[in-house]
Amino acid sequence: MKLYSTVALLGFASLNAAANDNIAYHGQPVEIDGNFDDAIWQQIQPISIHHITRPSDQGTADVETTVRVYEDGEYLYLAFDARDPHPDQIRAAYRKRDNIWGDDIVGVKIDTYGNHQLAYQFFANPLGSQLDSVENAVTGNESSAWDGHWQAVGKITEQGYRVEMAIPFYIMNFPNSEGPKQWAMEFVRFWPRDVDRRISSVDISHANECWVCQMPLYTGFANARSTQKLILAPAIVAGRDESRDRYSQGDWQHNNQNEASLDVKWAISEDITLNATLNPDFSQVEADAAQLSVNESFSLFFEEKRPFFTENADYFSAPWDLVHTRNLAAPSVGAKATGRVGEHTFGLFMADDDTTSMIIPGNLGSAAATLDIKSKNLAARYSQRLNKQVTLGAMTTWRSADNYQNTVAATDANIRFTDQDNLTVAFARSDTDNPDYLPDYLWGEAAERASAANQAGNAWYLHYEHSFQNGSVFVSHEDIDEDFRADLGFMTKSDWQSSLVGGGYSFYPEQETWWSALNFYTDWDITHNQAGELIEKEWEGTVGLDSLWDSAFEFGFYVRDRAGLRFNDQSLAVGGNSDRFEEKGLIFFAEVSPLSNAYLSVFVEKGDGLDLYNNRLSDLLYVESEAKVAFTHNLQFHVRNEYTRLDYQSNRVLDASITDVRLTYQFSSHSALRLSMIFDDTEQGLAHFAAGRADGLYRQETGLASQLLYSYEVNPQTVFYLGYSESASKNDVLNSLRADRRTAFLKFSYAWFV
């Protein structure tokens, strides 16, 4: 590999130090084609991207990367020139938005307020496939659910690759002020080879966990205005849904759906945005990632994908997940206002839902319920940055339906004492009125907890972390009353007091060798209910090694003392109402990218695990594996499998797996044809179940869900979908797979820029 001289790089860096404090203004656009043919690019001083920030924060990159940047008052234009001594090793394929991790990538992080609280992220691979996200430096959350309207075109060359970007100012919030502004920015290149390196324009220190805080300020943008004030996105959805009883194999019953809807986005000012939706289509076009739900006591999390809710979702980010919009299953109308004015950030959304879904939390398990009643829903979040060290926040959620109401009021603070010391504290109170029939939709602990007509409770949280060069230590405590509920959020635990202490450290070689990092981590936690009865205590630790072929290996152990199921579900007591079990096990994780177009990973857990079907310890084996192959720039294959096995006294009690297979032909970054199949199979050894535990269970259950989808996405709101899906299943009664539902659907929406 060709090494660029240290003297030349230092000289180039010195030149940039004097030249790149300002972002140039030119009142003319460029053609975004990846060619750099426009004469204006030759007038812009390049910014060097050469600081290695991962795996360690030491050293200078062996590849040359530069970016030229200017703005014209409406757009920020960027031209990345990523040189590579071996262009044949460049990793890239045409991919769906936000799905480019693992490829070669270049991009920019932009903090439009310059206060190091929040950064927009715009990345693209060498073929122009895009990823955008929002990073919240206060909460530490990063959301790729946000999708903005911007352009990127990439081209692979004999010297490496080039990417041009045009980012319109109207998709970002920024101060509405006259004259020059200061925005914090970082320019980044991801270079995955034997080692996955992150290369930056900034000398990032790992001793400071806040990387956004280390982004330098750039002056300019005096004429920046959010000129695009209004986006109208009408949509038409047509579909035919057919279902039948899988046992009788009778006639298909059909339901035709033809709906029109309208989404509106209005940039009231440069820093305040209003979103509204009328008669929205909130259907899931994409199938959720498959998850194995057997032998689980708490509800599974599913990511939000619907555009109205993902737009500016980071404005509702808090230490707890108090807003989980997947709880809104069928909204009929919705409105959202978000903005940042000076050091003040706020978000407000309201939606009417034709149903009412919620999670009833507990300390040994949780359950979800969906009531066939219409509800009104509201969430509001406000935060203020008092100074560089202190940010305060407040939040409320409210849900109301017939004989039901849930209200949550919360406040939080983030205090950064030094660059290495950070404290987060939060407090919340909830008040809930339950309909008397709610327990009929639930079971076990959840039914008992929802039986009270009124519930009111508090919750508080504390987390302190001290970071240092290549490591950190932390301590946290969470206390949630037995009657606390956040029904609009995703909080699965109540009657819960948990303390955690832990830390980690990484070693890096002083010079390039066959390994790139040696990582150590350990933590210890203990949990009681509010009566002081022990729920769980656990000690775990891992050691990891990053090595050649962009590989990572991790070995670990855990020792866990936990409460089993309650003997009497009518009592919420744990002591004297459950047995105690000691779970011990080993874990192993490996991931490797042996070729530029292939990725493999496997996670294995083996040990003594609690069998929740029979309330006893069994031999547990859990395996999660994944493989991705890009046969060409267009044709991609992805398979993911989860497998769980429980054996008791050498007898098979449970054997369950779920496999998610997706074959995609990506015509371009905007157009694709995808076939997805999700196959699940559960076999239970009922003859080896404990007495009375096999009632109502099948020996074997199998299901197959398939979908064929064509998608064309110009931008997040100009889309065309045409698809067909079908589901089938079999069990002890059915000898073969029988289809019980099939759906054909079409959706078209178009974004009008007014």
Automatic annotation (TrEMBL):
Sorted UniProt keywords: Signal
CDD domains for the chain: CBM9_like_2
One Pfam family linked to the record: CBM9_1
Source species, domain of life: Bacteria
Domain Carbohydrate-binding: 32-177
Boundaries of every DUF5916 domain copy: 252-318
InterPro entries, alphabetized: Carb-bd_dom_fam9, DUF5916
Region forming the signal peptide: 1-19
Any coiled-coil regions, as ranges: none
Name of this protein: Carbohydrate binding family 9 domain-containing protein
